[in-house]
Design a protein that fits this description.
Blueprint (H helix, E strand, L loop, with lengths): L13 H12 L5 H9 L4 E6 L4 E4 L1 H7 L3 H4 L15 H11 L1 E10 L5 E12 L5 E10 L1 H22 L4 E5 L5 E4 L1 H7 L3 H4 L13 E7 L5 E13 L2 E10 L1 H15 L9 H20 L2
Antiparallel strand pairs: 1-2, 1-5, 3-4, 4-5, 6-7, 6-10, 8-9, 9-10
């Protein structure tokens, strides 16, 4: 799944890399002049000969790898690859046939041993006869992108850990108020399994910031009542609604009993003065509404 954080990082420019390759292939470009061009680039540039040995690196590459240029010069590119990155031969073969590879996610190795995630682009340096004389490799450090993605995954894991332990039913509503997530308490309150609810429209009007009571008809026909609270949130980098449902069935039942008791005489079961007055007020309102219609 594509993460929206990737939009923060601009891919390596094909045009920029092609200009470098063209400049290097030109006999008119002096080595010192080319080095100056490479050193002003933000991306790491590594120039290899046809056998994969390093001929030239720019300042960004030296800093990314944590090694001085004189140390890198002459080293085989295999020495820069993180352990478990066996792509080199296949990569070079692809470049030989296609001319280039663009934005391949890979890992390089820093001088002190840690792995560096990069987007790697490779283009072939060809002589006038079309034979490959070397390769230009451009590497864009995406460590910050990986850090943000890891933080997002940890945040989601923490969120789900907290939500799963909540006694309240928690649902996340995505596009068209369809259920994108619900915790176990929500399945118990609704009387339905997660597989029966996910992807379906929620079924209740939802307005962010509102608190209301809703009637819930469970799968077995039982009627429940829940207090519903709704707030806006973000879910998988999209706007969503977070709905919490608290089972107040027993609370409402007791509230109704108390209301009923306050209106009836405990000995006769007939309406007391309070009950009589409430009924009278209701009847008067009905009469007033009827009169207003003429």
């Amino acid at each position: 799944m594509k993460n929206d954080l990737q939009e923060v990082f601009v891919p390596i420019s094909d045009r920029q890399l092609d200009r470098i390759v063209t400049a290097m292939a030109s006999a008119m470009t002096a080595r010192d002049g080319l080095q100056e061009i490479l050193d002003v680039m933000v991306n790491a540039l590594i120039v290899l000969d046809g056998a994969g040995a390093i001929r030239m690196v720019n300042q960004a590459a030296s800093e990314l790898l944590g090694q001085e240029r004189r140390v890198l010069s002459g080293m085989h590119v295999k020495g820069l690859l993180a352990e478990g990155e066996p792509w080199l031969e296949a990569c070079m073969e692809t470049v030989a046939h296609q001319g280039s590879i663009r934005n391949l996610e890979s890992w390089l190795r820093h001088a002190i041993g840690h792995r560096i995630p990069v987007l790697l682009s490779v283009s072939a340096l060809r002589n006038r006869e079309g034979g490959i004389e070397g390769y230009v490799c451009a590497a864009q450090d995406i460590s910050e992108q990986h850090r943000l993605q890891d933080a997002l995954r940890c945040s989601m894991a923490s969120f789900q850990s907290i939500v799963e332990k909540s006694a309240d039913g928690i649902l996340v509503l995505g596009e068209e108020a369809r259920v994108a997530y619900l915790n176990e308490s929500a399945t118990l309150l609704l009387g339905r399994g997660a597989e029966e609810v996910l992807g379906l429209p929620f079924g209740f009007p939802v307005v962010s910031g509102n608190v209301t009571e809703v009637d819930i008809i469970r799968k077995n026909g039982d009627l429940g009542i829940a207090e519903m609270r709704t707030v806006t949130t973000r879910w998988e980098d999209r706007n969503a609604l977070l709905v919490s449902l608290r089972d107040v069935t027993e609370t409402v039942r007791l509230r109704e009993q108390l209301r009923q008791l306050s209106m009836e005489d405990e000995l006769t079961g007939l309406h007391n003065r309070r009950g009589f007055m409430l009924l009278a007020q209701q009847e008067l309102r009905l009469i007033e509404r009827g009169n207003a219609g003429f």
